[in-house]
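TODO from last week: model Intein C-terminal splicing domain-containing protein.
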Amino acid sequence: MSHFFIFLLFLVSSVEPTTKFHIGGELYCDYDKEFRYQVILFEWDPWDANDALDTTYVRKAYKLGKYTVEGEDSSDGLWLFDDGNFELLLRVIHTCSPHEGHPHRTYDVYLGSYANIDGRTYTYTYTVNITNMGASGKDTVFGPHRFSGAVDLDGFMEDDNLEYNY
């Protein structure tokens, strides 16, 4: 009887399928200037809080910046709305605009829908032109999508903890 109970407990507590994402690429800035950027990978949920899967450090680049974000997820949000797919969103916070310094811009790029398949790893490369793209201003980080895991931009323009990408 105790073996049956242990087996039943194992079945009930079995692990949900885990899907992994490896997203990388380049960000183009058409202006002849240095710019700063940070990239965040979200699993977008229209009915639930969005999951921040990974983020880069704030980086500095000249015309071309590179990024890599990786994450994994096992649930598409509330069970009632779980369609078995992950909707990925790339958020790019950057200073590639004609203005120097603040305000930065926040640009959301929808990457598509990916099936939740246990053990599956999706690896994709995306090139994004961020030239003057996205909403302007500090409050856009908490903007219309109300993402969970919002980024703290205090010190975004400072050189501390900055990765250089040339």
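Done. The helical segments are 2-12.
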